[in-house]
Amino acid sequence: MSVWAIGDLQGCYDVTQRLLEKIKFDPAVDKLWFCGDLVNRGGQSLETLRLVHSLRESSVIVLGNHDLSLLAVGARTEEEQRKVNPDLLRIVQAEDRDVLLEWLRLQKLAHVDRELGWMMIHAGLAPKWTTQLAEKHAREVEAQLHGSGYRKLFRNMYGDKPSWSPGLAGYDRSRAIINLFTRMRYCTPRGRIGIEDKGTPGTQEQGLYPWFEVPGRAERDLKIVCGHWSALGLTITQGVHAIDTGAVWGGKLTALQLDTEELRVVQVPGRDVPKPVSPPRPPARRPAVEGEQNTGRPPRQGQRRDRGARNPQPRRNPEPAGDTGGSTPTPA
Predict the structure, then answer these.
(1) Helix (H, G, I), strand (E, B) or coil at 95
(2) pLDDT (tens digit, 9 = 90+) per residue, 135-156?
């Protein structure tokens, strides 16, 4: 038996099939953890969603921002649905759409396996959240997603504010929790998310930190695997394993084996498309993390970063097996 975490699929069905073949996935004995963003942008979202649904007995999924966008679209009127991009439109117009969307809506924001020693999320955690607090807050929103009032949640989940605070209530609280779990890359020590900052570390607004390097962050008793941040590349640092390696942008699709002492990474080439070109932005120096020398230079994409750790967990360099190496509305 093997347990594999897989980065953002984003509707790349053919790429996903190649990766499952390469890891020799056997649904009778193996387990898959999908880090969210199953759909959108890849052109094969319906096929990808059907594939993951067919593997539901041998997989666990956390919802990403694109998955929540799909669910929100699915809850709209047919006239409103016709305005979305063709990749998502094929899903909401498919004959099995109700089965697929109902199953997707019942998935998690965070998955925890304490026996295995891992937590899976899509994007990030608030600086002061322990894994126990994160799991508690995930269950709050999941109760709304899984209940009869989910349509009202979808109508109220869009927006960049408010920043997280334990005293938040109602949909402001739900929105802040969803933002952290599905949209965060950078944040301040007080938990304000840098929504517009999406590039490699060193390019963000001053005062923002990668969410896993924020000074004073809570100590966490589980290793974390996540996706969402394709510009970061394969990154293992501070007990966090970020495995969105941009398959939809012509990068790689990554699988990380979780049930071994020697972590094993397997990758296959992503879609054969050019990577998007972002407009140039002057690099901004960020305040140095304690114990870190800040050069102001972003690391190369895919570089593993291990700087300024507070009580870092022992890590082992994974050995890639074989091949290595715009946006829709995003829910709050």
Answers:
(1) coil
(2) 999 999 999 999 999 999 999 9
